[in-house]
């Protein structure tokens, strides 16, 4: 799963050096990021012209706190790939003006002609970024009240109990319009939601299920996450 995802990101940058890349945090893509950094060094791929955005961010969590998308993306991908600050734009979870924060992100995505490659994990509730069950799939970047399962699993990323309530996220329309929309999932705990995502009804109750409508959508899973598929 991680090798395949890393290779797709590399191909994207090889074909378009100034690609706009969107990255998720969470546990699932960690090995992808490690392999990506190794492969980029080995193959001497030039990432100096690409632009990187974060898929989402926790509202109210400072960027220097481990567990914030800022911190984790810098640690796991931007530092290893030597991506400069001028090549990065992340949601500011501390912004007092959430609307303008989302507007800035939307303008940036538009200026780049859309996202070239978006790498997402999937929540056990089917969320993509912080597009939670019930989300309007036509939305671009927006803030979202977090679902109870996201609030609970979110604590695992932090060293201390952290107040979580809302997230800032790219919208599903931006993911669906990405030239490559990748979802990675591994482990038994994702088997049920992967079945709903790829074999179930396309519904905003399972936000990830919209990937069925994307010609450029790719779901990359391991055997455990695939264990409930019947087709
Ligand atoms: C994080 C994000 C989330 C996670 C999802 C899965 O930036 O966008 O949607 O991708 O919650 O998290 P893990 O990979 O930790 O199971």
Specify Rg, calculated over alpha carbons.
Answer: 16 Å
Shape: globular
What binds here, in terms of ligands, is: fructose -6-phosphate
Our estimate of the beta-strand percent is 15-25%
Overview of this protein structure:
The chain has 231 residues and is of the alpha/beta class. It has a single domain, classed as Rossmann fold, CATH 3.40.50.1360. 33% of the residues lie in helices and 16% in strands. It has 7 helices and 9 strands. The strands form 2 sheets. A 6-stranded parallel β-sheet has the order 4-2-1-5-8-9, with helices on one face. The longest helix has 14 residues. The mean pLDDT is 98. The site of fructose -6-phosphate (F6R) has 14 residues, from loops.
Give a topology summary.
Blueprint: H1 2-15, E1 20-23, H2 30-43, E2 51-54, E3 56-58, H3 69-81, E4 88-89, H4 98-111, E5 117-120, E6 142-145, H5 148-154, E7 166-169, H6 172-176, E8 180-185, H7 191-199, E9 217-221
Parallel strand pairs: 1-2, 1-5, 2-4, 5-8, 8-9
Antiparallel strand pairs: 3-7, 6-7
Helix pairs in contact: 1-2, 2-3
The protein binds fructose -6-phosphate (F6R).
Using brief descriptors, characterize the structure shown.
Rossmann fold; 9 strands; 231 residues; 3-stranded antiparallel β-sheet; alpha/beta
């Amino acid at each position: 799963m991680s090798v395949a995802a890393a290779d797709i990101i590399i191909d994207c940058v090889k074909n378009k050096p100034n690609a706009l890349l969107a990255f998720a945090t969470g546990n699932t893509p960690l090995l992808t990021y490690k392999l990506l950094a190794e492969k980029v060094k080995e193959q001497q791929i030039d990432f100096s012209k690409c632009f990187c955005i974060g898929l989402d961010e926790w509202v109210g969590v400072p960027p220097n706190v481990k567990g914030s998308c800022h911190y984790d993306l810098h640690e796991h991908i931007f530092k290893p790939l030597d991506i400069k600050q001028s090549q990065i734009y992340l949601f500011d979870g501390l912004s007092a003006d959430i609307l303008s924060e989302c507007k800035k992100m939307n303008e940036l995505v538009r200026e780049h002609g859309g996202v070239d490659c978006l790498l997402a994990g999937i929540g056990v509730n089917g969320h993509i970024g912080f597009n939670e069950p019930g989300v309007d799939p036509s939305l671009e970047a927006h803030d979202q009240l977090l679902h109870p399962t996201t609030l609970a699993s979110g604590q695992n990323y932090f060293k201390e109990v952290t107040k979580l309530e809302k997230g800032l996220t790219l919208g599903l329309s931006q993911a669906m319009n990405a030239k490559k929309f990748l979802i990675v999932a591994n482990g038994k705990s994702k088997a049920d939601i992967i079945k709903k995502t790829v074999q179930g009804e396309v519904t905003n109750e399972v936000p990830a299920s919209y990937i069925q409508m994307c010609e450029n959508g790719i779901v990359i899973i391991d055997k455990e996450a695939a264990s409930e598929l019947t087709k």
